Every structure is written in structure tokens, then in C-alpha cells.
TrEMBL record:
NCBIfam families: PEP_CTERM. Residues 120-220 form the DUF4114 domain. Keywords: Signal. The keyword Zinc does not apply. Residues 1-26 form the signal peptide. The keyword Hydrolase does not apply. This is DUF4114 domain-containing protein.
Length: 253
């Protein structure tokens, strides 16, 4: 009986570890951009998200835009998170807004950037001890620490959770690799693993060009809810290792 229990325990621990594995990359599908006039050139190809990110990359490997993380929800890693506006190539750019929404209530939002924001602009969101969040003088109560990203504008409001967009993917999210450096408003930043680049499509999927260059920001001070905390991983690994060791001892006896 002890051997059977040890085997079962090890199996459950393995399942738990597997369940926490990083999700498969989403491999976002891009269309041909309708834009033909941007900083990277005057063609649709030059205005693609890939070409634009190549343009803003100052050193290190280029970000492969086909390899997005598929992450949808996030949480803060400290008392605040900083968002840096990279660029917006969109007819709706003067009116598009960007911010966070409460994971359990998408109607609860806090804005980080308003329409017409210039590249390099930064916005800081504070996560207060009472569960509220604050950006400047704007405070939203009962927000909590689990959230997604949204883009709002004349084309509609879209979320980082596909289920809230009728199953369509309106955001492509990339995690820093620790090697790439980006030019954000004339300031070079390290795109390290603690940062995420969030790129949005701002028009309903049926009528959009699916270029995901309509609003692009870099977020620092958050982590994906799709990846467990290191302490949890270490704990589960210890459980799995202990269970396997128990099995070996019983087998030897």
C-alpha cells in the first residue's frame, strides 16, 4: 500500500508541474497592414509590426513577432508597474486609450494612456494595500492585483483575453529576452524578462487588417498569471522529488 501511495503521489506532483508549464506560443496570424506611411518606411511591409520593432531595436536579437507568448492575464510583482508608450500607427491613434482591466470584471478599468500619446511617455500604476489602483490622481477601488490589458477607441474596446473579444486575438504579447535593447522615445531600455511588449489591433476582427501596430507599449513590474511563482515551482519540484525518493526506498526494502 505504501508503494502504491508513493507512486500516486509522485504522479500527482508530476501532473501539477506539467499543469503549470508555460502555454504554447500563440503564433498570432498577421494580415497585410493598410498603413503605408510610418517611421520605418512608406510601404505596407515597412509598417508591419515586425518591421517597426526592427526599427526600434538598437541592439541584440530582433523580436520575432510570430512567436507571441499567448499570455492574457497578469499580476503585479511589486507596489507599482510602469508602462512606456512605444508607438501607435493607426487612424484612431488620436482617440485610442490603453489601460488595465480587472480580471474578474472587465468593466472595471483604469487608463494608463489617453489618445495622441507621444512615444516615450511613461505612466505608472500603483497597487495599493487596500486593493485599489492609482494612476496620477485617478483611483479605482476594489481592483485587486489580477488584471488584463485593454485598448479602447472608436473601433471598439478590446481585451488581452480572447474570450472577451468573441474568441478573437486582439493583442500580441512578447516577453523580454534579456538581450534585446529598444529605443523608447530616444531612451534605450533593456528588454529583459521582467518586461512585456503589448501590441494591439484596434478594429473589429472582421474588418481589421490584423497588423497589431495600432498601439504598442512596454510594461515593467508585472508577471504573467500563466506562469507560476518560482516558490510554487520549487515546492512542487520538492514534492515530486520526495515522492520519487520514497518510492525508491520502498522498492529497495
Amino acid at each position: 500500500m505504501q508503494k502504491q501511495l508513493a507512486l500516486t503521489f509522485a504522479g500527482l506532483a508530476t501532473i501539477a508541474l506539467t499543469g503549470f508549464a508555460k502555454p504554447a506560443q500563440a503564433n498570432v496570424t498577421f494580415g497585410t497592414s493598410h498603413d503605408t506611411n510610418c517611421v520605418a518606411g512608406n510601404t505596407a511591409e515597412a509598417c508591419s509590426l515586425q518591421s517597426l520593432l526592427n526599427y526600434y531595436t538598437t541592439s541584440g536579437p530582433q523580436i520575432d513577432t510570430t512567436q507571441d507568448t499567448g499570455y492574457e492575464l497578469f499580476t503585479n510583482t511589486g507596489n507599482s508597474a510602469t508602462s512606456s508608450f512605444l508607438f501607435s500607427i493607426a487612424g484612431f491613434a488620436p482617440d485610442n486609450t490603453f489601460g488595465l482591466y480587472k480580471a474578474s470584471d472587465p468593466n472595471t478599468k483604469i487608463e494608463l494612456f489617453g489618445g495622441g500619446t507621444a512615444g516615450g511617455t511613461e505612466s505608472e500604476v500603483s497597487f495599493l494595500a487596500n486593493g485599489a489602483v492609482q494612476v496620477g490622481s485617478n483611483i479605482v477601488n476594489n481592483f485587486g492585483s489580477d488584471f488584463g490589458f485593454y485598448l479602447g477607441g472608436p473601433g471598439g474596446t478590446f481585451f488581452s483575453q480572447n474570450a472577451l473579444n468573441g474568441g478573437n486575438q486582439h493583442s500580441a504579447i512578447y516577453q523580454g529576452n534579456g538581450q534585446t535593447k529598444l529605443n523608447v522615445g530616444g531612451k534605450e531600455i533593456d528588454f529583459d524578462p521582467g518586461k512585456y511588449l503589448v501590441a494591439f489591433e484596434d478594429v473589429s476582427f472582421l474588418s481589421s487588417d490584423k497588423d497589431y501596430n495600432d498601439l504598442v507599449v512596454v510594461i515593467d513590474g508585472v508577471r504573467s498569471k500563466d506562469v507560476p511563482e518560482p516558490a510554487i515551482m520549487l515546492g512542487l519540484a520538492a514534492v515530486a522529488g520526495g515522492a520519487v525518493a520514497t518510492r525508491r526506498r520502498h522498492k529497495q526494502s
